[in-house]
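2 proteins. here.
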Amino acid sequence: MEMSQIRYVLAAAKHLNFTKAASDCNVTQPALTKGVKALEVELGAPVFHREGRRILLSDFGRSMLPHLQQIVSEADAAQLLAQNFRLLEKVPIRLGVMSTIGHIRLARFLAQFEKTNSGVELSVSERSTTELKDKLSNGELDAAVMTLTEELQENFRTHPLYAERYVVVFPPEHRLGQLNVVSLQELSGENYVDRLSCEMREMVMQVCASKGVELYARFRSEREGWVQAMVLAGIGFAFMPEYSVTLPGLIQRPLIDPTVERKIALVTMPGRKFSPAMEALMRSVKNFSWPG
């Protein structure tokens, strides 16, 4: 039983005319008729009754039709899967990640994605918010993981992932580490490690000023690793997103009064068609169990 013979039968059943069926299959009518007869011989019964130029499905043919259609459908699905797999390998995903995003939870997602999509090549680059927006707009990135803002929602396509609170990070044995939660007022006058790359830094500073909270920056850095290392060394405390704290030994407590939270989203360009690899990534994003 050949796939071409099955397709001939299905086309003939659709048109009930060998000439039209042959045209659909891009073969000559004698070739199609020969293929249909060969399949009937193999099946051991006629699929069609011939009445001159007119053909009708036999009872046997009618009963076989769903099975033949299923064979073709499964063959087409297998061919599409193979084609998409080849395309996945040819079109890598270029993913940008904002420098303040905690990498451990994102890495868990990417590891699961790699296991279920082994044919996908993925490159990840860490950038500032401005660089990520520029590279998305210029087509240098396919997607970016960023803090969700009104500006992004207005100008890009956003796919929410998870939300995370801001916490206060202390060195071991810090007196405020004994508390379950820490209010902004309780931090006034404390030595402070300033995260210059924090996208919510200006907002936090404005709240501090409005509440009369005085912070003394003993150290400033755009590098998340340096900020955490200096806190651990006892230089001062820092404000950080809870999933970005990665250095063992640090004490973290939820910040209250005010509570500060950010939402993380996968950001893509509106109107830009996804490659098969990006389609696979989007499916994984929707199905993954994100924190919170």
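next one coming up
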Amino acid sequence: MVTTGGQHEGGAPGADPTPRARGEWARHWRCAGLPGLDLLRARYVRHSFPRHAHDGYVVCAVTSGVEAVGLGQGTVRAGRGGIIMLNPEVVHTARAGVPEGWAYATLYPSSEVVAEIAAEITGLRGTPGFGETVAEDPHLGHLITEVHRAAEAGDALAADSLLRIVVARLLRRYGGPLPVRTPRSAGARTAARARAVLEERMTDPPSLEQLARELGTSAFALLRAFRGAYGMPPHTWLTDARVRRARRLLEAGSAPAEAAVAVGFSDQPHLNRHFTRIVGVPPGAYRRERSGREPA
């Protein structure tokens, strides 16, 4: 059981967890020798993740409490022994499903890592993906936590081996080819053009009305098309995109204050708030785990 200060049964993570509200802790990091993999081990009680998506895959094992994940088709829940699987770019939220919160060990393998493993061990054609979001699979959940333990011990050989075993078994049990995207409708094409504008003008984006006028449509039609294509309205998507870009800047060594300005946040506190909500740890802690530098 987790206690205040980040200690828990089985030993604390290799680095001090990020100080949080009472009973909460989190560590989001990478292990040397494991390219293409991010790791998160955390316990959350009051923290909730807003709508966001990931470039790669998400695989987590709930070790205590209950996690509630909000998807377009509804909310799914996983308790101890349950695993959650999300494909790239799946918009979702996450929060505690019970008052005492939840603890979990999460793996974020890149699309390249999963594709490589799928090519070696399955006959899947096309892009591999998970056909289920939640499964009761305590043994696989245990293997996911073992990836973390090996990585925290600095044993990249064991961690990499266990990671490949985990992904291979997940694909065999719950995997399949992701659906091929159908030809884009006029609304989807408009949404894609809007997204390109927001990416290009991230630091000084137009208003919804201005953007719609530039694209030759109405604000409501654009809002509806964008939500249909990307699962969230343009302003929510832009915040998520800013945080994703800030992550890359922090990984390259930028200070949080520099990253905040570079992605269009008005100041570092705004980056801190949105980054912590979406990633689960503050930008300073995220940067330290990847660069070894002290926070700015």
